[in-house]
């Protein structure tokens, strides 16, 4: 026979109904008879019903308490098992431990290499040996964690390289090729070299008593000129590598490069689609642009196109074309020489008018600037007159 603590929910609900009916029936009969004995019997019955409810509640509590204690006992027994499972699942295996040790050693080695690099760079007088200085960085260049930092330190060394030959040796020995992945870093290096070039050039133009004071160095005029010329060769070499990459796209893929403050020197960029590249404060010197597409260029403020044959381009954006016609026309002061000059003013004008039509820009051939500082045509050689020799 089940006790109250073992009844199901439906059974308990049914017993509550019968208790209520019996209690109500006893109370009604006692009230209707008015007999004292019946009233006492009704009171006794009510007490019995109350005691029964209390007993059932206690039994339910005891039963649930027993279940709770059983659950606690099972929990205490399960804890060691769960801990054992956790140790088996989450404890690192030999491979994980070895990998963690390698990562820790790599981190320690990187900080040591970084510290030594900065120390040597600061202690080196003049311009350091870039190959010697950057060799310890090479193992980290392809690491995902320290690759960018290693590349940035290499740029610092390259910006202070000893000579143009050493600069080129670095690229050849490391087999560095310009591509989409490192174009941003190469552009940063170009800007650093361009800054050094401008500092040296300004110092050469303002030197007094033959001594040039530039940040970190004191050079005489001859040393400063050699350093400036070396940087110019480095910029020319770097521009050539950039040009190889741009032309390798074949004009089918827009470059869309950040070329702000970049100095491009003596490079062939024919057929390159520059897309929406940024050209603010860039310098284009001795740049061939035959068939290049500059129709997407909108950012070109303060760009300089010295000896750059932009009139040979395939398309140029309307605002850039207006800027070039007004400010970067052939032989504009002080540019008096071009590596790829237009054959004549008439040829130049006809090419520019074709560019204007393509860009929907209103142009007038009569008011199209063309420099008056063009170099004079070389005089035809005069044939020496033949003087007959005197007869003896």
Describe the structure.
With 392 residues, this protein is mostly helical. Among the domains are: 4-79; 249-375, no CATH class. The chain has helices spanning 9-33, 36-90, 94-123, 130-134, 147-158, 164-173, 183-206, 221-248, 318-327, 345-359; strands spanning 211-214, 217-220, 263-268, 283-288, 293-294, 304-306, 315-316. The strands form three sheets. A three-stranded parallel sheet has the order 3-4-6. Helix 5 (147-158) runs parallel beside helix 7. The protein is elongated. The model is unreliable at 1-6 and 381-392 (pLDDT under 50).
Summarize the structure.
The chain is mainly alpha-helical.
Q: How much of the sequence is in beta strands?
A: 5-15%
Low-pLDDT windows of residues: 1-6, 381-392
Class from helix and strand fractions: mainly alpha
- Mean pLDDT, to the nearest integer, reads 77
Give the helix level as a range of percent: 40-55%
What is the N-to-C order of secondary-structure elements (H for helix, E for strand)? HHHHHHHEEHEEEEEHH
The total count of helices amounts to 10
How many beta-strand segments? Answer: 7
Oligomer: single chain
Strand order of the largest sheet: 3-4-6
The N- and C-terminal alpha carbons lie at a distance of 164 Å
Shape, per Cα inertia axes: elongated
Largest sheet: 3 strands, parallel
- Rg of Cα set: 46 Å
Tags for this model:
392 residues; mainly alpha; disordered C terminus
Task: Draw up the topology in text.
Blueprint: H1 9-33, H2 36-90, H3 94-123, H4 130-134, H5 147-158, H6 164-173, H7 183-206, E1 211-214, E2 217-220, H8 221-248, E3 263-268, E4 283-288, E5 293-294, E6 304-306, E7 315-316, H9 318-327, H10 345-359
